[in-house]
Specification:
Layout (H helix, E strand, L loop, with lengths): L9 E2 L5 H10 L17 H4 L4 H6 L1 E6 L5 E2 L3 E2 L6 E2 L1 H12 L3 E6 L2 H9 L5 E2 L13 E16 L16 E4 L4 H15 L6 E3 L4 H10 L4 E5 H11 L2 E8 L7 E8 L5 H14 L1 H8 L22
Parallel strand pairs: 2-6, 2-7, 9-10, 9-11
Antiparallel strand pairs: 1-3, 4-5, 8-11, 8-12, 8-13
Protein name: ABC transporter substrate-binding protein
Keywords: Signal
InterPro entries: Solute-binding_3/MltF_N
């Protein structure tokens, strides 16, 4: 696919795939199964870093934790069976650089980590932010910046610049995400300061989240910045009211290829990512999905992440 996307991304549930995919197509996104992905050459030096059992197997088993869909990070094509999106494209690039065939296994966010723990998946490519807590169990090779944002109905005066601005509000967030951790931490700090508590809501489907937002049952949604930017543009009914680093106020959040700690795979991923950055294929993938502002100059292994809190 050539650069057909002129926007960013929005959460997309399988149940609501038809309507949201139509919006994506209208916005200039190639949602067909025939993706004509950006490709790269085998990187022999990176491939040599693979454990023998993975290299000999010839496949890279990728956990893709977007079972509910996330345009254009990861979602199903028009055929409702072919995984496509930014994260899928990066997974393909890394697999090709390592001389492996990618096997994209779509799962839920929660089951993604279960699969990594059991070594069912070699790697997770699913907008996974590096956190200090996750570093206790997983190794990371970074490949993209991570920003998060608040979304609300268009035309309001509410803006979020920090913790105090969520006091008394009802806000939806994804369970188990770093956005949830930040929201919970902010809420606890507000309560200790004597401010009204926020009400945190969880929805299994993004269609339910946006129905609650349009009906006024929630005041806002806190999620990945690219998904919110995409939904703002395609829906015409909402607006972004605050953007932050996914790792908090003092650290730039980073998205990373994620593998079970001490699996022996992370150095190969880092080398593969550095290789596709150097040959330009990485930049073309990010441009394809309009996230060039999140590009990294190099991959890091286990950099500082969202901090632990007591």
């Amino acid at each position: 696919m050539k650069r057909l996307l002129v926007l960013s991304l929005a959460l997309l549930t399988l149940a609501g795939c038809g309507a949201d995919a139509t919006a994506a197509s209208d916005a200039g996104v190639n949602t067909s199964a025939e993706q004509n992905r950006v490709t790269t050459a085998r990187n022999d030096a990176a491939a040599a870093l693979l454990p023998a059992k993975v290299r000999d197997r010839g496949t890279l088993i990728v956990g893709a934790g977007f079972g509910s869909g996330s345009v254009p990070l990861g979602f199903y094509a028009d055929d409702n069976k072919t995984p496509i999106g930014l994260e899928v494209d990066i997974a393909y690039l890394v697999a090709e650089a390592l001389g492996l065939k990618p096997e994209i296994q779509v799962t839920s966010w929660e089951n993604l980590f279960v699969g990594l723990d059991s070594a069912k998946y070699d790697v997770g490519f699913s907008n996974i932010t590096v956190t200090e807590k996750r570093k206790q169990k997983y190794d990371f090779a970074t490949y993209r910046k991570d920003d998060i944002a608040f979304e609300a109905k268009k035309g309001g005066t509410w803006r979020v610049t920090g913790a105090r601005d969520i006091a008394g509000k009802t806000i939806a967030v994804g369970s188990g995400t770093n956005q949830e951790k930040i929201l919970v931490d902010w809420n606890e700090a507000n309560v200790k300061a004597g401010l009204p508590a926020a009400t945190i809501r969880y929805f299994q489907k993004n269609t339910d989240t946006y129905l609650a937002l349009s009906s006024g049952r929630i005041d806002g949604y806190f999620g990945p910045n690219p998904s919110i930017a995409y939904h703002v543009k395609t829906s015409g009914e909402t607006e972004a009211i605050g953007k932050f680093s996914g790792a908090g106020p003092t650290l730039q959040g980073l998205i990373a290829a994620t593998t079970k700690k001490d699996s022996g795979l992370v150095k190969a991923y880092q080398a593969a990512i550095d290789g596709v950055i150097a040959d330009g294929s990485y930049a073309r993938v990010l441009e394809r999905w309009n996230v060039s502002t999140e590009a990294l100059a190099k991959s890091e292994i286990n950099p500082p992440g969202l901090p632990l809190t007591s």
